[in-house]
Design goal:
alpha+beta; Aminopeptidase; OB fold (Dihydrolipoamide Acetyltransferase, E2P); 2 domains; 14-stranded mixed β-sheet; four-stranded antiparallel β-sheet; 7 helices; 20 strands
């Protein structure tokens, strides 16, 4: 049940003033105002647990001192997809945001229920990304979608929606977008990662419903549910700032960075298990495969029989199943077809090198730790 007009928790930070502050108005969102050059953190009351414990959707707004677009970056619409939460945490701390033009709206966790329960879904098993634009009087999913769409999403001019693969399913970093829309294609290409999938719109998804009211949306897919993947996170932070530069929200780099040439997949196909048993992968994400190449093996725990999993086409592996226990018909590999497969493979390898050499890439390590005696 949605909370009825509870108090909203607010924390406001001033980023300083300059002589340009008077040329733009305060930014209004969810009954709040943010002055030019200000940052505002507030909790949007979204729902309650059975115990009447409130669930508040965390929102941060950074309003620049000069006019520009309004970019919404949101994560965890599927509550167990965690890379987006960390991407937004790092994005909000970047020093370059001091030079922001326009407005950046950050919502790291949209699906509070799913996040708490480590689940993709809401308690009624609905997928929040199939509930937009929602309704004030519908199901729980419809009400949460309506709140987010009405109070947050509609106030943006552009949206980047952050996702991962499902549980036990890993995705190569990729952009999914409807490239028939010019503004969407600009954002997708500006993100500057090797793989773009020209994906159709699913009814009642955020990407579809925002598009219907003229807001361009791209989806960044990278990594696996319930896992934090450093390369996917760094690629996400870099990609978002690349889009912000293209939109004129951030200044150009003093030293221009090398741009990754994106390739658009002509189509994709899933390779499914043809038998039940134990699955061992041979191929890996980002790898180039040819028609008939071996991707994995399915075996039985009770005999020596082996069933080979082969690629039906030439392409690049952009998704794979990490769970060894499979049933016939389960999706094992996602293959994307390109016109220049060899070029895509080389660009992916170069992009991985660029990410791991980026100053943002700093996975935590434990060194020189002295263990005490028992």
């Amino acid at each position: 049940m949605l909370a009825a007009n509870p108090a909203v928790k607010v924390r406001e930070i001033r980023m300083g003033r300059d002589s340009d502050a008077s040329v733009i108005k305060p930014f209004k969102i969810a009954r709040h105002e943010v002055e030019p050059g200000g940052r505002l953190q507030f909790d949007l009351p979204a729902a309650q647990l059975y115990t009447h414990t409130p669930l508040d959707m965390p929102v941060e707004v950074i309003h620049g001192r000069r006019p520009g677009p309004v970019l919404l970056v949101c994560g965890a619409i599927h509550g167990n997809e965690l890379n987006g939460v960390e991407i937004i945490r790092r994005l909000r701390s970047l020093n370059t945001l001091r030079h922001l033009r326009g407005t950046l709206v950050l919502v790291p966790i949209v699906n509070l229920f799913g996040f708490i329960h480590q689940s993709r879904y809401l308690p009624d098993r609905r997928d929040l990304n199939r509930c937009f634009p929602g309704s004030e009087k519908g199901s729980l999913g419809s009400r949460v979608a309506n709140l987010f769409f009405r109070e947050i999403a509609r106030h943006s001019t552009h949206i980047i929606d952050l996702h991962t693969g499902a549980v036990h399913r890993d995705n190569l970093p990729q952009i999914r977008a409807d490239l028939s829309v010019a503004a969407v294609k600009q954002m997708a290409e500006a993100f500057s990662i090797p793989v773009i999938v020209n994906a159709g719109l699913l009814d009642h998804s955020l990407r579809c419903e925002a598009g219907r009211i003229g807001i361009p949306v791209i989806t960044y897919e990278a990594g696996e549910a319930l896992r934090l993947d450093e390369r996917s996170i760094v690629a996400g932070v870099r990609g978002i700032t690349n889009v912000m530069r293209m939109l004129g929200m951030l200044p150009a780099r003093v030293v221009p960075a090398g741009r990754t040439e994106p390739f658009i997949a002509r189509s994709t196909t899933w390779v499914r298990a043809s038998a039940d048993g134990l699955f061992r992968k041979i191929a890996d994400l980002g790898q180039r495969v040819g028609e008939g190449d071996r991707l994995g093996v399915i075996t039985s725990p009770f005999n020596s029989e082996e069933v080979l999993v082969s690629s039906p086409t030439e392409g690049i592996l952009i998704g794979l199943n990490n769970l060894p226990l499979v049933n016939e018909g389960e999706a094992l590999f996602h293959v994307a077809r390109f016109g220049e497969v060899a070029a895509v493979e080389g660009t992916i390898a170069q992009h991985v090198d660029d990410i791991t050499s980026d100053p943002l890439y700093a996975p935590e390590t434990v060194e020189d730790v002295e263990l005490g005696a028992d």
